[in-house]
Amino acid sequence: MRGRMTAGILLAAFLFTSGASAQVDAEITHPVAVHQVEAIYPAGLAPQHADVILIVKLDTEGNVSEVKVETSGGAPFDAAATEAIQKWTFSPATKNGKPFAARMKIPFHFEPPKPAPPDPDVETPPPLPRTPTQTPTQTPTQTPTQTPTQSQASDVEDVHVYGPAALPYVGVSDVHFSIGELFRARGSPSDNASKLLQSATPILLTNEGGEGHAEQVFLRGFDAREGQDIEFTVGGVPINESGNLHGNGYADTHFIIPELVQSVRVIEGPFDPRQGNYAVAGSADYELGLPRRGFVAKYTGGSWNTQRGLVLWGPEAMSDRTFAGAELYSTNGFGQNRDALRGSAMAQYEGKLGDKGLWRVGAQGYASHFHSPGLIREDDYKSGKIGFYDSYDSSSFARAAVPQGGDSSRYSIWGHIETRSGDTTLGQDVWLVKRDMRLLENFTGLLLDVQQPLQSLHSQRGDELDLNSDATMIGAKGFARWRTKALGQRQEIEVGYFARGDQVHGTQQRLDNASGVPYQTDTDLQSTLGDLGLYADANLRATKWLNVRGGFRSDILTYDVLDNCAAQSISKPSTTNPPIDQSCLTQYDAGGVPAHREPNQRTSTATIVTMPRASAIVGPFAGFLLSASVGEGVRSVDPSYVTQNVSTPFASVLAYEGGAAYTRAFKDTLIVARSVFFQTHVDKDLIFSETEGRNVLGVGTTRSGWSGSARITAKKIFKSAVNIDESASVTLVKSTYDDTHLLVAYVPDAVVRSDTAIFGDLPLKISGTAIQASLGFGLTYVGKRALPFGQRSDDIFTLDATASVAWRNVEIGVTGTNITDNHYRLGEYNFASDFHSQPQPTLVPERMFSAGPPLGIFGNLTIRFGGKS
Amino acid sequence: MTRSRGAFAFASAFAFACVGTTGGQLVDFPASAAGAEDAATPLVFDQTTAGHTWHVSLTEAKLHIGALYLDQSEPASGAGDTNCILPGVYVAEVTTGLDVDLLSPTPQAFPVAGHGSTSPVLVGQVWLTGGDINAVTDLTKTLIVAGTATDDSGASIPFEGTLTIGANRVPSNQTTGGNPICKQRIVTPIQTSVAVQTSGELLVRIDAKRLFVNVDFGQLPKVSGTYAFSDDPTSTSYTQPSINLYANLRATGTYSFLWTDAH
After folding, report:
1. What does the alpha-carbon distance between residue A611 and residue A652 come to, in Å, rounded to a whole number?
2. CB-based contact, A789 to chain B, within 8 Å
3. A670-684: average pLDDT
4. Of the partner residues B20, B25, B81, the one whose CB lies closest to the CB of residue A786
5. DSSP letter string, B148-205
6. How close B256 gets to chain A, by Cα (Å)?
7. Average pLDDT value for chain B
8. Does residue B22 belong to the interface with chain A, where contact is any CB pair within 8 Å?
9. What span, in angstroms and rounded, lies between the C-alpha atoms of A519 and A499?
């Protein structure tokens, strides 16, 4: 399997040459590598070369006891090299026949893929063990005089394996996170691709909209709402929905089957010239793959009548990126009005393109129908008028004929082609996405439908929003990366383009609570949106330890918006012909005289925005990497904000950061850590509006904070069969308005996440086969969030756990979510609402909340046929 | 030492992140209603109308308040009618009803505390309703008064009155919603400069004397041996005293909002 893995690596191992005088009196036998494992080219990175030199300490038995990075090639490559070297074993070094601890210098050279995927019938051979004569000199640590003086390359052995182009490392905020056991440690059947991000980076996810509603994502102090401030992609295909009325850039990741996500790459901040629209807080790319090959059938069932069936298939002799998978999911939910149905299927095939390239095609389909409870007023909960997990839609005083919830579907196809020509790598992606969404939400109850003078007499009919978005997106992107050598170092320049067109029809109506009939049209927009961009990125090395990279991204954003409900009020209506109960008016005030007009109106505009971005990455110290980055980004505005020829239909972002990353391995233990200080300014931030049911444009804001994370992977603890994978992250941030310097509401200023997986073989065999077991824990802490009117929310603490055992082809497991059964408020708000729970209208802001799930217990059974990881 | 420095740095960063405010504050506060400070039983005062002075001895005056609201802005007086409810302008509210004895200067507490923010207040609203502010039918006795009015000639008029705001008050031009029944029930804008605070209570005083401004007791019709204010605008007995009593009930000058120390 490793032989087919992701990258071409060029291995050369050599030892330090001892001083000549030290060699005279002693007969030295050099350690010989008796078992080697190739370093795996980090998945998801664009083609590039990288050099990592490790200092490896061997004990007297030839085991790797300590690893240090002497020369960094970037955190992903450092980690890959360090992980590989821990699997090597050596014959011990001897002096006069007596073993002694030795230190070696081992360079790894990572090379981007050359040919297409390997012939499945030919297994790539592992590197040959070094013979003593092939082994360079050593530095026995026990002999002070035998200090390293020079290095000498041994024979070079090429091992070609193939994979997609890798993206250049941007800086310490560039986190490439392989999922593996950590996701198994999460294990909840309701988990989705958004929650994978929690393991990769410190974020908060909330969701008051139900299981088919996009997760609300808080990253680096941004209330990204449903993902608007994060550029989401899956295999490079955009997920953010331009023109979605609920949120321009709405990103629903529920269509992604989480078991088919091989890794996640998160870049916090807009520092990579490849990042485009919506990369305000950063970007997240899901890399699809199925490392564990064969056929998998999995059933999960448990609390709230939750059931999930999953099948996965990865042909053994093919690339990890060739797979198929499908799931069906249903649940009654943990309280009133929380039921959901979901189905999703994804398939992809990767093939070779001559001997220097590859191609990939894929397709996916997803559909869901779900309900959501909405929010609960704190005073109603405290007075016993409604339960913690209840919904007003099911109450006696605000029952809704059409409860909140929605429908969601996404169907897409994509293709990717990549090849090398000389020293240039070329890549091209195309995609077509059809996306439909309906959301029914009511944040304010029966508050906003006040009696208007020109309406027929009515009572409050309700504020339920029926929002629909039907969108078709077609797009392409490509790049050419040229590599050369100058100043004795490898230099790279990449240019690329991005083209995306969206046709979106968005409507929003208000439904009568009692009948479910729409009584008013708020919005009816037909939009044609374009985003065409180009970028250039230079990756220059002055020395081996100084890497300066950067460039620019420039986009033209175009809008052509037909507003079918352009006129909604008349300042001086006719008294003889008042527009009673009409949503989209056909009268307008022509200087005090009512005149006819068509209800629709078209607006169009376009603008070009250029965003410079740069990073300096310094790695003069073994294992340490320092970086500083600055960049600009944009978020396009909702089509409803577009007016004719407006010059800036976007919000601008300016971000800075500086940080350090550290990678070190001790025998079977790998430690990767990072620390980043950041500041981000947005000139037009998104602020939640309960009356609109979404975020709306507000004033400028600034976020300042610190983010840190660490991952420790330890294998064979105390020489046992126990392995541990621990990932922890913390973000502390302060978000303030530029004008008043008051806090931005709803943003969590402290988020802590920890995922732990403990796995390995039990000392128990059945029919000669060991039983494998795993334990997992996921801990989330979110500090008290600032709320409007000087309030603070409760903090959140949840603990999830899972346990499983596997024997041969069968695995059974149990998962507990929120195992301490905390009654916690996942989302908290302060605004006015009226659900007729009190004798008279409640018109003053009051605490509202959405309940987090209570204790849930789920069991699962997995059966595998064929394949191996 | 290094460990303590690290802990200190982390704590500092944590503290840095967790300070600040979004401004303002939400508070729950007690609320009361009372008669004027000089209220007494009976309440004796002189009422002069068109040069004729009545010596009034009020023995009963009860008012049903459905709700109180405090607003941060006044309804805009544009060309069109304003709505009864203007979402977004409300600062504080008391949403449960109370029958207030207007002859007592002692604050009478609303059964449930009020709720609001510490934002500045410009105007107050008194909702004279027994149920849904928009429901046409409401049989709640909004105002009950009784007493005796005498003049210098020795004429004595024992009077009583009960006012409701229901179907009897539906305006004739309500068909397009321009003047719905809720307009009859909401007394606004009552000018005030109340500042809701984290301590103290909201007090609304209703001056019973002002209910009788320009009321000519001499024009009260005698029904079944007593003089009574009419509650039926379509009735022939709905004359100057009844019109003015109802108008005074809805006059903003009858009410005043205060923020007092909790008693």
Report:
1. 9
2. yes
3. 90
4. B20
5. EEEETT--EEEEEEEE--SGGG--TTGGGSSS-HHHHHEEEEEE---B--SSSEEEEE
6. 20
7. 87
8. yes
9. 39
Give the pLDDT of residue B176: 64
- C-alpha B171 chain-centroid distance: 21
User: Is B2's Cβ below 8 Å from some Cβ in A?
Assistant: no
The verdict on A750 touching B (C-beta cutoff 8 Å) is: yes
Mean pLDDT of A383-398: 94
Instruction: Please check the confidence at residue A206 and state whether its pLDDT lies above 70.
Output: no
- Tens digit of pLDDT for each residue in A496-538? 999 999 999 999 999 999 999 999 999 999 999 999 999 999 9
Inter-chain CB proximity A842 and B177 less than 8 Å:
no
- B44/A35 Cα distance (integer angstroms): 109
User: Average of pLDDT values for A192-206?
Assistant: 67
| DSSP letter for each residue of B1-56 | -HHHHHHHHHHHHHHHHT----SS-EEEE-EEEEE-TT--SSEEEEEEETTEEEEE
Is residue B158 scored above 80 in pLDDT?
A: yes
- Per residue in B231-254, is it b (16+ CB within 10 Å) or e — as a string? beeeeeebebbbbbbbebbbebeb
Spatial contact of A637 and A651, defined as CB atoms under 8 Å apart: yes
> CA A734: distance to chain centroid?
22
pLDDT of residue A377: 96
d(CA A735, CA A214): 23
pLDDT at B83: 78
- Give the position of tokens 């931005």: A744
Write the ipTM: 0.87
Residue A232 has pLDDT above 80, yes or no: yes
d(CA B126, CA B93): 10
On whether the CB atoms of residues A456 and B177 are closer than 8 A, the answer is yes
Question: A 579-638 residues with CB below 8 A of B?
Answer: 580
C-beta neighbour count of A27 within 10 angstroms: 9
pLDDT at A813 over 80: yes
Kindly list the residues from chain B whose CB atom is less than 8 angstroms away from the CB atom of residue A445: none
pTM: 0.81
What's the rounded Cα separation, in Å, for the pair A363 and A348?
A: 6
Tokens of A515: 């009948």
Nearest to A112 by CA among A173, A44, A14: A44
Whether B177 sits inside 8 A of A750 (CB atoms) is no
Taking the C-alpha atoms of residue A824 and residue A849, their distance in angstroms, rounded to an integer, is 9
Residue in this structure with the two tokens 């295909």, named with its chain if needed: A237
Contacts of A92 (CB under 8 A, 6+ apart): A31, A58, A59, A60, A61, A62, A99, A100, A102
d(CA A713, CA B85): 61
Size of interface A-B (CB pairs under 8 A): 152
Which residue in A705, A733, A843 is closest to B85 by CB distance?
A: A843
DSSP letter assigned to residue A487: T
Q: Examine the pLDDT at A435 and tell me if it is beyond 80.
A: yes
The predicted-structure confidence for A108-159, as pLDDT tens digits, reads as follows 777 654 433 333 333 332 332 222 222 333 333 332 222 232 333 333 333 3
Note the pLDDT of residue A123.
Answer: 30
- Tell me: pLDDT of B82 over 90: no
Cis peptide before B189 (omega within 30 of 0): yes
What residues 241-260 of chain B have any CB closer than 8 A to a CB of chain A? Answer: none
Tell me the residue type at B45: F
